[in-house]
Design brief:
Largest sheet: 9 strands, mixed
CATH class of the largest domain: Alpha Beta
Shape: globular
Radius of gyration: 24 Å
Strand content: 15-25%
Order of helices and strands: HHHHHHEEEHEHEHEEEEHHHHHH
Strand order of the largest sheet: 3-2-1-4-5-9-8-7-6
Number of strands: 9
Structural class: alpha+beta
Distance between the termini: 21 Å
Number of helices: 15
Helix content: 40-55%
């Protein structure tokens, strides 16, 4: 039994065991379903239950049960994260919004996702908040997630957004996420720094964070009016003296806004600024924040120069303090890795439940499975990177059947008597996923690792099936 399967049901009990679903039997079914899905990542409930008819029927009965509220399923997982968070001195709440899209028979019950109006895809908008340990950057867990379906009638009304009250806008999701997170974390909340991208540059949200004495790092999207000699935000911070330089790693990104991963050397400025309230708020008084401006002076040809302006509650009295905030901001990308793990790893968009509510229940379970994928990847990276750990036997993460099949696949020879090293297992699984180490980093992306992991398990499943037929 591999590390993925060996700990899956223990993890499921710790994550969902305190979910209050109105009946202890429902909670028990939820734990069993989550454990099965965590042990067979990317599988359907039927396949994950491994032919156990009773377990399969219990899983689908839970997912089809209208009395089971998706939010109540998630609360057990949030409570487990809140408990784990008490062990850390400083936490980062990295958050963002994504979509879950589907195009099977249930689309009529789902919401508009924007984009091409002719698209057959519909689904959910989802806003998620992950907690990270600020010191180690390890993923602690999922602390908040909201899902909603957008009415098609709202399409094309973006230009009228200023006519709507803040309470009626989707942009209020940032504040609502913080409010729910604060309720769950209680006394731990003062240790939490919310880290958000430009979409969170909403004046009302920043004002809420200040009034609630909550900590934040938000990348500025708007060149807001400020008090002082300079009339606008960017001009005001550009007038501050350069504190020094700082190098950051820019993550690779695919899709329409593709970019290659690289290192960027940034000049760093910092200043305290007073943001004047936008006219549409009708508010009075300025909002005091600290700003850090990081600009790339010499980007390579064809590369868009990095320019980040961060607004924060944190004091910025030195280059080291400014660089700390820049580091926190780079960790925001972890939530994008979570989205990839949820979709590409856990396969949330491949599920074909027969109602929107059933899909949502499944999405909740798979969201926590996706967090576990991130945590397992971080653990494996740490084991391989740690001095002396790389040469430990691979049986710490692979079963005997797994590493022997991996050996035959990669080495094209009979397996040795002694299990090879953890480093060998890491590189072999990565190569199975298509890794060539062209950048000479010695590290594969998590997508490559999980692709390799799934390909290995296809071979393991085929071997076990053939053995059973003999």
């Amino acid at each position: 039994m591999s590390v993925m399967e060996r700990d899956a049901f223990v993890w499921a009990e710790q994550t969902f065991g305190r979910s209050q679903l109105g009946d202890a039997r429902r909670t028990n079914r939820l734990v069993k379903l989550a454990g099965a899905l965590a042990g067979q990542v990317g599988s359907s409930p039927s396949r994950a239950c491994g032919g156990d008819a009773a377990a399969n029927e219990g899983a689908y009965r839970l997912l089809r049960n209208d009395a089971v509220v998706p939010g109540e399923m998630a609360e057990g997982g949030f409570a487990a994260t809140a408990e784990a968070a008490t062990r850390y001195e400083t936490l980062l709440a990295v958050e963002d919004t994504t979509t879950l899209s589907y195009e099977h028979a249930v689309v009529a019950e789902l919401g508009d996702l924007g984009g091409d109006a002719r698209s057959a895809k519909r689904g959910f908008f989802v806003h998620s908040v992950l907690l990270l340990d600020a010191e180690s950057a390890h993923t602690v867990g999922l602390i908040e997630q909201a899902r909603w379906r957008r009415d098609s009638a709202a399409r094309g009304q973006r230009h009228r957004r200023r006519e709507r009250a803040y309470e009626d806008k989707e942009s209020r999701k940032w504040q609502q996420a913080s409010e729910r997170m604060a309720r769950r974390l209680g006394a731990t909340m003062p240790r939490v720094i919310s880290v958000c991208d430009r979409e969170a540059d909403v004046y009302e949200y920043l004002k809420y964070k200040r009034q609630a004495a909550e900590r934040f790092v938000v990348r500025a999207a708007w060149d807001r009016r400020v008090q002082g000699e300079a009339s606008h935000l960017f001009e005001a911070v550009e007038q501050a003296p350069v504190l020094g330089e700082h190098t950051v790693r820019i993550a690779q990104r695919g899709g329409k806004q593709a970019r290659r991963g690289r290192e960027a050397c940034l000049s760093v400025r910092a200043s305290a600024v007073s943001l004047r309230p936008p006219r549409h708020t009708g508010g009075a008084g300025a909002l005091e924040v600290n700003a850090v401006l990081a600009q790339e002076q010499a980007a390579a040809p064809g590369e868009e120069p990095v320019c980040w302006l961060l607004l924060s509650s944190e004091p910025v009295e030195s280059l080291a303090a400014a660089c700390q905030l820049l580091h926190y901001y780079t960790l925001r990308w972890r939530v994008e890795e979570f989205h990839k793990a949820w979709k590409s790893g856990a396969g949330v968009e491949q599920r074909r439940m027969q109602s929107a509510e059933n899909l949502e229940r499944m999405a909740v379970v798979l969201a926590f499975v996706a967090v576990r994928l991130l945590q397992l990847r971080e653990t494996l990276d740490e084991q391989v990177a740690a001095k002396g750990r790389a040469e430990r036997p691979c049986t710490e993460v692979l079963s005997a059947t797994e590493w022997k099949i991996l050996w035959v696949t990669q080495e094209r020879s009979r397996p040795p008597r002694r299990a090879p090293s953890l480093r060998w297992a890491y590189e072999s699984v990565a190569k199975l996923g298509g890794w060539l180490d062209t950048k000479r980093t010695g590290r594969a992306s998590w997508q490559t690792m999980w692709h390799g992991w799934f390909r290995l398990h296809e071979r393991v499943d085929a071997y076990l099936a053939s053995r059973d037929l003999m």
